[in-house]
What we know:
This protein is α/β, with parallel strands linked by helices. It has helices at 17-26, 43-47, 63-73, 100-121, 138-141, 147-166, 191-200, 209-220; strands at residues 8-12, 32-37, 52-57, 80-85, 125-134, 171-178, 231-234. A 7-stranded parallel beta sheet has the order 3-2-1-4-5-6-7, sandwiched between helices. Helix 1 (17-26) crosses helix 8 and helix 3 (63-73) runs parallel beside helix 4. The mean pLDDT is 93. This is SDR family oxidoreductase.
Amino acid sequence: MNSLNQKVILITGALGGIARATIQLMDQHDVHFVLVDCVAEDTAFLQSLNSSWQYFQLDSSSASAVVQMRDQVLKTHAQIDCIIHAAGLYQHIELAELSYEEWNRQISINLSANYYLIKSFLRALAEQSSIVNIASIAGHQGSIAHTAYATAKGGVLALTKSLAIELAPRTRVNAVSPGLIDTAMLRGMSDEKRASMVSSTPLKRLGQPEEIAQVILFLCSQASSYITGENIHVNGGLYR
């Protein structure tokens, strides 16, 4: 994966489980990180990195905040080689209890933020650049009490296919759809529900963030240079 050396990688949701694993994996390739999350920086984690990094604490579902961040980033980096939108919000709310405000918040974070990032950095995308959108198994098969989340992730899949056509040949656009991954996002699920879903998974276990990170790394690298508009399922066989 030497094709990643010295590349500028923008990652949102940077302190979440999948993003952290991706950062640690890519850190082996001497890249330049632009890291974004809505929480304060984890100084110990960031200082452990060998690669250079910038950290921005902001809400990526705010278009104006993303534009301001872009302006700061482009003072340091003339172009962006890869965008990975890993920020997300997953909450268990049945439709009868799902408020209009919560619906809009989940759509904004899980879908609109992708658009804000890509739109803002469009002119800065490098030749042979790559965008990796994080979708979900929920975007393919639906999910009870996760209507807004599943709807947004279905939108991410459509966004991926549309932009793969529109941004070619300069930029490849792909998606990864994780299944049950052992991150903080999943820990909000009841033990009974989680056990039931693990039992339904042919591999009979939760996935690990590192297993998603490997696929993201592949899609960002030139090892996937003839792949665009695709979605890769990483779910232990739960959805095929």
